[in-house]
Design goal:
3-stranded antiparallel sheet; globular; 14 helices
């Protein structure tokens, strides 16, 4: 057996055998050897520890090999406390164990020939500290993440819109059938978390406003507005998070950006042909526009930042096709209604661009220390790429009246 320095004590043979027996529903499994390595590099994952485990095992008299991804909660004091209070791992475990299988089942019943899952299979959930999820290794099935520093091109973004629309549509149908299924998925932006929200969002936005003070061509136009925006950022995040029953509400991924999507490509043409969403720790049930705005303003290539209408129309078309397929055309919002919902999420979009996007676009050699960010309000290093993106976004935000 070969292990690396990244292996925590709890991630042992007994743990892995329990996970395999749960996933395969077979108690005759015995592990003969395994190897643990890191599943991500610095800057590719911020909310958990990720391990990849290659396992050799026997099932009955036959020998097998598999690869699993183990995702466990962070053990840093402040980050762990914030995530524990928000029940992020419980959100993700129930999303993968209950919500996504229900979505998959409904789609598979009506379109089995076309159906492709939205998320990885969950083999096992370890609920004692540290909370851990054991997932199928999507990399073994040919999926991989795109390069976050480049942003996604039109082909990738259109696929995301189609896949997201299908997932959103089916979740809206499930909610109409069984609203209790989503009762636990309240917003993360509420008064109970004001202290943590202030430490991250208000402090982060103020640090960004100070940075823009140093940009001669932008200071006179945006500086005063950004400082004022940061003062009220937590109040409107909480206010705007309230669910409006008149909106098109769905099960949100909640953290939909390039690193939380894995793509599969055609071996013949190299074209992107499928994807899986990963990391459902921030999921909740609310306005569909949140996922759209979050993705569109964090993950597209620079040239697509002012061409969102193309992608929103594709999302809307796919919603319509999915509702028609399942016989729920009455749930389909009009394109005008969808645009109005996106406008309602305008301030939320700016908030993410000022505070979360700098972390997403950080340089690999200057990865932010999330513990210091949350605990001490330490400022993020603003990479050249982030500055380039923000300088394109700010005039768009200004034009839309979101500042």
């Amino acid at each position: 057996m070969s292990e690396t320095i990244y292996t925590p004590k709890w991630l042992n043979k007994s743990f892995l055998e329990t996970a395999l027996r749960s996933g395969y529903e077979n108690h005759s499994i015995t592990i003969t050897s395994y190897e643990v390595t890191r599943a991500t590099v610095d800057g590719e994952n911020y909310g958990s520890n990720m391990y990849r485990v290659t396992i050799f095992f026997t099932r009955g008299s036959q020998s097998h090999k598999t690869s699993l991804v183990i995702k466990s909660e962070l053990e840093e004091e402040e980050i762990s406390k914030v995530m524990s209070e928000a029940k992020t791992f419980q959100r993700e475990s129930e999303a993968l164990e209950i919500i996504m299988p229900a979505i998959h089942q409904l789609l598979e019943q009506t379109s089995s020939a076309q159906f492709q899952p939205f998320a990885a299979k969950c083999f096992y959930i370890h609920t004692n500290f540290p909370f851990a999820l054991v997932l199928e290794d999507l990399k073994e099935k040919g999926f991989r993440t795109a390069e976050r520093s480049r942003g996604l091109d039109l082909q990738h973004c259109l696929l995301v819109m189609r896949k997201l629309a299908r997932c959103h549509a089916v979740s809206a149908i499930l909610h109409q059938k069984n609203p209790e299924l989503f009762q636990k998925y309240e917003s993360l932006f509420d008064e109970k978390r004001r202290k943590a929200l202030t430490q991250f969002f208000e402090v982060g936005a103020k640090n960004l406003a100070v940075e823009v003070d140093k940009w001669p061509k932008y200071k006179n136009i945006y500086s005063e507005k950004l400082h004022a925006f940061s003062d009220g950022i937590v109040d409107f995040l909480i206010k705007d998070a309230a669910v409006d029953g008149n909106d098109f509400n769905v099960f949100l991924h909640g953290d939909l950006w390039v690193n939380n999507i894995m793509f599969r490509y055609s071996e013949d043409t190299g074209d992107v042909v499928d994807l899986r969403f990963v990391d459902f720790q921030l999921s909740y049930f609310s306005n569909a526009a949140q996922d759209l705005q979050y993705f569109l303003n964090t993950s597209t290539e620079l040239d697509l930042l002012d061409k969102h209408d193309i992608l929103v129309r594709e999302y809307h078309r796919t919603l319509g096709k999915t509702f028609a397929l399942l016989g729920y055309e009455q749930l389909h919002p009009t394109l005008e209604q969808l645009h109005k919902q996106m406008e309602k999420k305008g301030r939320y979009t700016v908030a993410m661009a000022l505070t979360v996007l700098p972390i997403m676009l950080s340089d690999r050699n200057k990865v932010p220390d999330m513990e210091k960010l949350v605990k001490d309000g330490e400022s993020v290093y603003f990479s050249d790429q982030y500055k380039q993106v923000l300088k394109k976004l700010l005039p768009i935000f200004e034009r839309k009246g979101w500042l």
